Amino acid sequence: MIEYTGFIYCPRCSKASLEQFYTNGFKCKECHFVYFHNTASATGAIIISTKGILLIRRAQPPKKGLLDVPGGFVDYGEPLESALKREVHEELSVDITDCRYLGSFPNTYLYETVTYHTTDVFFICHYDESQTLLPNEEIEEIVWVTDINSFEMNLLAFDSTKAALSLTKNHW
Ligand SMILES: [Zn+2]
Question: Ligand 1 centre and the CA of 67: distance in Å?
Answer without folding.
Answer: 41
